[in-house]
Amino acid sequence: MAEVAEAARTGVRRGRVVEGVRAYGLIAGMWIRSTMAYRTSFVLTAFGNFAMTALDFVAILLMFSRVDALGGYSLPEVAFLYGLSGVSFGLADLAIGSMERLGRRVRDGTLDTLLVRPAPVLAQVAADRFALRRLGRVVQGLLVLGYALVVVDIDWTAAKVLLLPVALVSGAGIFCAVFVAAGAFQFAAQDASEVANAFTYGGTTMLQYPPTVFALDLVRGATFVLPLAFVNWLPASYVLGRPYPLDLPGWVAFTPPLAAAACCALAGLAWRAGLRSYRSTGS
Amino acid sequence: MSAGSGRLYVAVAAGGFRRYATYRAATAAGVFTNTVFGLILVYTYLALWDEKPQLGGYDQAQAVTFVWLGQALLAALAIGGGGFEDELMERIRTGDVAVDLYRPVDLQLWWLAADVGRAVFQLLGRGVVPFVFGSLFFPVALPREVSVWAAFLVTVVLAMVVGFALRYLVALSAFWLLDGTGVTQMAWLAGLFCSGMLLPLNVFPGALGDVVRALPWSSLLQGPADVLLGEADPLGTYLFQASWAVALLALGRLVQSAATRRVVVQGG
Lengths: 283, 268
Fold this sequence. Notes:
By secondary structure, chain A is an all-alpha fold. Chain A is 71% helix and 0% strand. The two termini of chain A are 27 Å apart. Chain A has helices at residues 2-10, 13-36, 39-64, 75-96, 102-108, 111-116, 121-127, 135-151, 158-188, 194-199, 201-207, 216-225, 233-240, 256-276. Chain B is mostly helical. Chain B has one domain (3-267). Helices cover 76% and strands 0% of the residues of chain B. Chain B: Keywords: Membrane, Transmembrane, Transmembrane helix. Chain B: This is ABC transporter permease.
């Protein structure tokens, strides 16, 4: 343990990342084992997670029971948008959705326990109470995406096929960055963790609908300010063969990895600033 | 109820109000989040009503008003969770509820008073701002007559009681299940789906629409909304809500007395 502490203190940046991933894996594994002690409870809560998420898609189905198109998009196309957004967000939520508990730890002072442990704080907070039941959301997104891929009318090319996994992983990265930034914000505003919901849950809800539905300013904001459009709107516009509402050139559909990298870097900076500003309650 | 116990429940309600009033940052965060969700929903509803004007008998302005009303009532009526029920369940799980039962107050009325206090605060603290924001920036259909607003407020109070009665039953399930997570989650699902939060109930197709409109959850959002939008007769809505309130509160008492006997058994 002493060597680990030493390595964590003096280690180069690369070492920190490896150490972080290792710590995350250990803590998450521990929570998975504890979850699996009550298997029935796990199955039920995972199903609850699935059902809660599915409600959004039920709303879309109900809408399409009364109309044939929404913002010019058909049901298969909306399902395609929904699936991409749902899986990306589900993966991010599974990986680090526990970040939203940070505010409570800052408030009651239990964050101090994490600070003295020889592992990166971000990894510990992210893996804290790792909730495997959130797989329910990922599964729900995958089912809708699968349905969309079966029914949607797409002229498949190699580039389009390749873009799908790239978009899913980049999208998860962008949502992870939003979670981390929201976590950093909780150092400043401990009680205001709900603000994060507007960008995480609100963001994924918005992306479930076509960009043509929303006011141009909102689409601009989701493209240039908080680049959620890179999760699915931009790559999906390319795959579905639709022009993007802001007249962006076609190649931006391939930039989600860049957007994700930029978001993660900025979120990392925000996290460091937040952690530096932390003052323990002393309790 | 004597004047003395009446004063007691008023004090409990005031306590519930004050307790939530202390969480200022959380309230501000809630206002922000409700406004953002309202914004997203409004655009999807506008797209829907663009495609099919007069869908479900609403025009676009009425549909927009419905969205902001939902955001205003969501926290107050705890449709998506967040009321008193988690606390009561915890007290049942730990056995602290035994102490509550020996107090010279009525358990159900005590929690009703506390929850109404909470709901009134959430309505004023979290509900008004998103609603005003929505009314300023989007075309809304608001009544000019004071009488309609007054009738609407009565339906909101009745909605608070129906919402409480439903969640009281959910909380009491902890006497048998101890862990109420699953029941709570199912209750949220039913609440979101059947209250109109997901989509106005008059948009639901065919028989599904008839069924959800007859269930108690339609008292929470659909009823008050239709009174405010001039789509429903206030008296009929009162009658519907009050019937469900009385039936559910009575059922709560019945379950409570069965549960209380169980506490005695466990205690012995």
